[in-house]
Amino acid sequence: MTNKNCSLGAWGFGANFLPSNAINQLEMWQADTFSPDHIERELGWAEAIGMTLMRVYLHDLAYAQDPPGFFSRVERYLDIAARHGIRTAFVFFDDCWLPLPKPGAQPEPRPCTHNSGWVQSPGEDSLAHPETWWHLKQYVQETLRTFGQDQRVFLWDLYNEPKPFPRQGGTTNALLPLVFEWAREVAPSQPLTVDVWSWEPILAEINRLALAQSDVLSLHCYGAPAVLQNQLQVMKFLAEGRPVICTEYMARTQGSTFADCLPILRQAEVSAINWGLVAGKSNTIYPYGWTPEKGQPPQWFHDVFNADGTLLYPEEKAVFQSVTQGLS
Fold first, then answer.
1. Which of 1, 53, 129, 253 has its CA 20 to 30 A from that of 46?
2. Model confidence over 288-303: pLDDT tens digits?
């Protein structure tokens, strides 16, 4: 059963956060490459433009290597974020990009290639063997037991962009309903969500589950303003009084810009989390499918800051100021 009385708190905006020196979730969280100095500096830049929310991906393999150390690093991150006035939504699982994650040293980024090192969680080798999912349950439940009453965490995003499995022609994701069950058994104080990221017919069953089980409805929209407005209307109707949050948006070359979309989200009182904070090893400043042969794109795709803390587009500062007027 969903929690009908949940709240996301005051309206805010922020970013999906990966430190600029990490290519993926494992490089962010593994002991050898965890970088509190980068996190401190980059969240300070976010605070300076009024951001109060971050969405951050965890990874089951980072937990499996060293649960106590993993939780210590998550605690360190939360401490830094809280000092900058930032609350966090954590993501447990993700069906996007490379299907076979491996712990240890991560690859260097491929030039001009969007998210060349981002990894799925769990990997396909784990997803294909349900008899091994007990360790995924342990990862979810121990994380929720550790941080499930922590006010620095405002949302648990159980599964990013879940896809059908088997991925060729399937219509269900057998892991998804179990993750909801595992989380409900622990009963964290924060709300649970799984995003609606596409309305393609093949995702109908997954979307029905996400909409039925989420305490908060979350959507991803990289479309132009008219598309965003339409999707917000649909989600608010389907929410039946539950809060709605946009946990991914802003792809400049697709017409999803801060100038056009952030005021819409502010007026709708839907908190807004764009993709990317600081341009770095993820290379998400480049559009999907970009290659070095194409040179530099006419406009950067995602992200807000350069690696030196200057804005990619200084004119966007006025947009951030306009939506934060009157917020305490």
1. 253
2. 999 999 999 999 999 9
